[in-house]
Every structure is written in C-alpha cells, then in structure tokens.
Amino acid sequence: MKNTKNFSRREFIGASSLAGIGFALSGTPLMAQSLAIPTETFTTSKKFKIGIIGCGNRSKTIIGALNNVPEIEIAALCDIVPHKMKQRSELIKTGDKPKFVNNLDDLLNMDELDAVAVITPNDTHKEIVIAALEAGKHVFCEKPMAITVADCNEMIGAVDRSRKALQIGTQRRHSGEYKALIEAIRTKPVGKILQSGLFDYRGDWRVPEADEYPTGTPYWRLDQKRSGGVVYEMGAHIIDVNNWVFDSEPVSVCSLQGVNNFSLRKRDSSDHGGVLVQYANGAMMNYGGNVYNYGSNALDTFFGVNGTLQMGGGKLSIKYGFPNGFPKPKDLPQAEQISLTGNNREGDGVVEQLRHFAKVMDGKEKPYPDGYIGRQCVQILEGSVRSAQERRIIDIKELG
Ligand SMILES: NC(=O)c1ccc[n+]([C@@H]2O[C@H](COP(=O)([O-])OP(=O)(O)OC[C@H]3O[C@@H](n4cnc5c(N)ncnc54)[C@H](O)[C@@H]3O)[C@@H](O)[C@H]2O)c1
Q: Is the pLDDT of residue 231 over 80?
C-alpha cells in the first residue's frame, strides 16, 4: 500500500475499498418490522450498536440526534467522570438501557459494539480513534479530527490497516443550508471563487459546573495545547466549508492570533485570530474569529469572477457584476436571494451525518467527511497556530 501521507484525497477514495464492511443484505430489514418503522425510513440491513466516548456538552446534541436515527442504538456510554453517564442515559429515548463503562479498554472489548463516537477534548482524539479502529470499531470522531497533521496521518494509517471507517463530525457537509451554498456556487453564473471573507464571532466559552471534570483538571478549552484555541474550536467548521467551496489544496497559511482580552477568564488558548490561506488554484481565504462578541455575527462572503455570494440570517444573496472598464454583459442576471429555510433545508446536518454514518457501517456509503477532508482542515488549523507562534508564513507541505 502506497504511503498514506502522499495520498491526495481523490486517490484515497479510489484506492481504499470499503468491501470489508459490506454485509449480506436480504429482503426487508428484520429490524424495521420489529420496530414497526416504515421500511423506507429504515435505511440499513440491521441496527448498529454504538458506544459514546465523552459524555460532556456535545454528547447531548449527538444523543439527541441519535434519537432520530433508528438505524443506530446507543449501547454503551463512557466517560472518565462517571456521574455524567447517568445524566446522558436519561436523554436516550430509544433502545435498551446502555452499559456504563468508565475505561476505554473495557468499552473497546465490547464485541457487540459496531462503532464508537469520540466526543472528548481535541487533544485526546488521535489516541482514542486509533485504539478504536485497531479494536475493529468504525469511528465517528467529532471535529477537529486532531491537533496536528502528523496525528491525522497516523489516524489515516490506522484506517488503512483496520479497513474500518472513520467519519469526521463537521456536520455542515450534511446540512441543507451549506449544500444550497455549494449548489449555487457550482451552478449559478458567479464564475470561479477568488476570495472568501469568513467570520466566527461569539461569546466566551461556557463556565463548566464544579463537578464536571476530575478535581484539579482545568477546563481544556482554556488550554491552547489541548484545544488549539479559537481557530480550532470555532474556525474548523467554516474553514472546512471553505475547503469544500474552493475544492483546491491549501498551500500557504499566514496568521496572527493570541490572547488579547484580559477581561475574560485567565487562559493561554487564543481568544481571537485572523487567518489568511492561499490555495493551489490561486484563491484566498480570509478568516476572523473571537470569543468576545456581544453583537450579531458577520456574514460569510464568497467573491466570484462574476458574482458575490453572502450567507447568513437563513438566506443566501447573490449579486452579479462585471469589472469596471468593461461593457455591461447583455445577459447579466438579476441579483437573487435564496431562502435557506424550508424544502428540508433546515437541519444543521447533525442527524443527517449520523444517518449517513449508519449507511457507511452497512457498506452502502463511504465515510463523508472522511479522514482526508478532516486532515485538510487540520492543515490550515495547525498551519495558522504555527504561523502565529513563529511569526512567518507556513508552507502546508512542512506539516507532513
Ligand atoms: N460539531 C460541533 O458543532 C461541536 C460542538 C461542540 C463541541 N464539539 C467537539 O466535541 C468535543 C467535545 O466537546 P464538549 O463541548 O462536549 O467538551 P466537554 O468538555 O463538555 O466534554 C468532553 C467530555 O469528555 C470526557 N473525557 C475526557 N477525556 C476522556 C477520556 N479519555 N475518555 C472518556 N471521556 C473523556 C470529559 O470528562 C468530558 O465529559 C470536542 O472535540 C469539541 O470540539 C463539536
């Protein structure tokens, strides 16, 4: 097998077949009958059992979403803080009562589990994902995939060796809103996208309850090494969308980021950041984020050769234009607004990504977003932190 590091995403999809995870399919899924779920909504040949690792804040959303995915049953919960498992089990609406397991090895030794969902702090993703793949489990891993590109390469290596699926939790890839954005950019006469202006301004991270972490364990989001700061924790979503829009490899990253609002709780994780990225197709991304916003969020904008698209507030507006000094094109389209609500454009993609993951386990779909897409996002995240720390432009290739 060719060394994964040099695999471009397209090659990876070509090379690695998911044959290993196909199951013999026969007639109407039994489970659909027993659960009286209309067969057309039950999309897999069997019900899959998943173990949730990390029963913190995000697990509430994932458990809520899984309540709407009849193809997946939560069979086990795992957290290093035992009382959280009971709290989360109360949110589970379907299936049998899950087992509570407070160490990873015991959970991975549960043969009945087909998969795990990794919903723990960012710096723990690599170790847990690799252990799970090597234990023969499919893995749904929350974003960001990992802290470094080197970590991502090791995780992709484990996918290759185990032939199990790894899907990354950047849910916008399954959200109606962002699919509408991609569709507009691919089909409307806006021309090639040359630059983007993207923003993530929000309030500060929540204050955990006193008993949320083992005594003396500081909150990981205030620790740069554990979280990656504002660009990792927030930027991962829209930066991944930008990779999707540009459909080109990031080449160079330049960034300034750090701690500058000393009215916030003491931390060493960045509370603001600006990131510039140059892509192989010449396009440029311009990202800004902070955690001290008390106002409304700014609109995300994509600038094309013949049109500008702005997204926000449940709508996508497109204005068409032509460069000064050139005659107005006869067929210049009218500006338009596309509503991003209704026509099942709701749904931020959380349920949809898990429904897709069920089909992945059933051998019907490939993981999406996969480890390559996850890594491409981490290339920009890690590159941005290195650029800010070393005060220089980072060539993505340096990251491995
Ligand atoms: N996709 C999204 O929109 C989204 C939103 C929020 C968070 N997240 C991601 O989800 C992950 C978790 O974030 P959160 O807000 O739930 O954090 P959190 O701190 O609330 O929860 C993390 C949980 O993991 C547990 N944990 C830590 N190490 C563990 C280990 N080795 N084994 C088992 N449990 C362990 C902690 O005790 C805690 O309960 C992060 O990667 C974050 O970036 C994604």
A: yes
